[in-house]
Design a protein that fits this description.
CATH class of the largest domain: Mainly Alpha
Largest sheet: 4 strands, mixed
Bound molecules: zinc ion
Number of helices: 16
Helix content: 40-55%
Number of strands: 11
Strand order of the largest sheet: 5-4-3-6
CATH topology of the largest domain: Arc Repressor Mutant, subunit A
Structural class: alpha+beta
Shape: globular
Strand content: 5-15%
Length: 429
């Protein structure tokens, strides 16, 4: 800090040169939006501005890369520059570091990601996720990673994009998954994080199958209670209350219970058995392959854990992916109702509402006939998908959707914009 206070470097206190000549030319802000502009025109303007901002993001990345590439060793000078960038951009030091790292990665490679940023397909946030992921894969896998990463994050929300990249890295290097998981298990813990207004977060850092099982049990308890007469709590509140009851159920003193002002309000949580769905490739199960398993609600899990889960736990619903067997019932026009095996298949395939960017759990969604039953749509996997109530209704409001055999969905908005959503896991129907 003291060194910084001494002021400019040896080059002297001269005013820096004007940088505007090598910055992109910007048109002045819109003076006046014509009163007779149509919705189509205004939406086109929003899209054009979105592209302009993407181009500026790329330009900023190039400038940051130039700034950063001069700094080879981690020195006080580096940190000063980093802090300056954080301050200018109004972001945390960690966020500035992420931005710088992505800028450098983009300068050195990832030409296609750069292209996608430039034409406005990928926002900067998603580019950072891809750039961070690219650093975790072996150099010879970077090209394959990039192609797949772009496909996976296009049209996904930022949370979903992060999940998918994490899963992609695990898929590319499954051989390291078991090892990494073993090491990380030792870090499990329960921590508390204070929140505002008398609230706090309780974090449980757990192996994924246990975490998913706990969340599933709480969700089931919540759904069961939700249907009861006079119950006004929403699903989230019920899930939280069920967790409190389960974790505090065995208080030694009745008085403690009273201090906490609680009675057992989610009495049936204890009776609810969690369901953990894991998809395991047959060859992995037979120990002849190291392809990862897929834990519903989480993503890929290491082959060792997948084998263990499949071998035990009576509550476990097992699905073995075997290209040779056709386990999914195709009932065509015979029934409108979706039979349970097909329902389970769809839950595994979709996991969430299939509208772009929606993350509503499939448990809380409707199963929609993509081509309506009334229009001769069939009750088959290639004509059914999970949609939450809100997005289910959009189909009556000008949105159209096409579902492909492999579960990929193509949405078109009332104004003609297209988005694609991918299934959570590719399952052979
Ligand atoms: Zn939805």
């Amino acid at each position: 800090m003291a060194a910084d206070a001494e002021g400019p470097h040896e080059s002297g206190p001269a005013r820096p040169r004007d940088v505007t000549p090598w910055l992109p030319e910007l048109v002045p802000p819109a003076q006046r939006i014509p009163g007779d502009a149509t919705d189509f025109e205004l939406l086109d303007a929003v899209e054009a501005l979105h592209r302009t901002r993407a181009r500026l993001d790329l330009h900023r990345a190039d400038v940051l890369a130039a700034l950063w590439s001069r700094r080879r060793v981690h020195s006080a000078d580096d940190e000063a520059a980093l802090r300056e960038v954080a301050m200018i951009s109004g972001v945390s030091l960690t966020a500035a570091e992420r931005m710088l790292a992505a800028s450098l990665t983009l300068k050195q490679g990832l030409a296609d990601t750069r292209e996608q940023l430039l034409d406005g397909t990928l926002p900067w946030s998603h580019v950072e996720v891809i750039a961070a992921g690219a650093k975790l894969v072996e150099p010879e896998d970077v090209d394959r990673f990039e192609q797949e990463a772009i496909r996976l994050v296009t049209g996904a929300g930022i949370g979903q994009a992060k999940d998918r990249i994490r899963q992609l890295i695990d898929r590319l290097h499954p051989e390291q998954m078991t090892e990494r998981h073993e090491a990380e298990r030792a870090e499990r813990d329960v921590t508390i994080e204070p929140g505002a207004n008398g609230m706090a977060w309780l974090h449980l850092y757990l192996p994924a199958p246990e975490a998913v099982a706990i969340h599933d049990r709480l969700t089931r308890a919540a759904i069961a209670l939700h249907g009861e007469e006079g119950e006004t709590r929403c699903i989230g509140q019920l899930r939280a209350d069920a967790a409190i009851d389960l974790l505090l159920a065995v208080l030694p003193e009745a008085t403690d219970w009273e201090v906490l002002d609680r009675s057992r309000r989610t009495w049936n949580s204890l009776d609810i058995v969690p369901q953990v769905h894991v998809t395991v490739p047959v060859l992995t199960l037979l120990d002849r392959s190291d392809e990862p398993g897929h834990l519903r609600g989480y993503g890929p899990i290491d082959p060792e854990t997948a084998r263990r889960l499949t071998a035990q736990a009576p509550s476990l619903y097992r699905v073995l992916v075997d290209p040779g067997t056709n386990t999914v019932v195709q009932v065509g026009r015979e029934h409108y109702e979706v039979p349970p095996p097909l329902r389970r298949f769809l839950q595994l395939r979709d996991e969430r509402c299939r509208f772009p960017g929606c993350s509503r759990n499939a448990n809380l969604c409707d199963i929609d006939h993509t081509i309506p039953w009334a229009w001769n749509g069939e009750t088959n996997a290639d004509n059914l998908a999970h949609l939450c109530r809100v997005h289910h209704r959009l189909k009556e409001r000008g949105w159209s959707v096409v579902l492909e055999d492999d579960g990929v969905m193509h949405w078109t908005s009332p104004f003609g914009r297209r988005r694609t959503t991918l299934p959570a896991v590719a399952l052979a129907a």
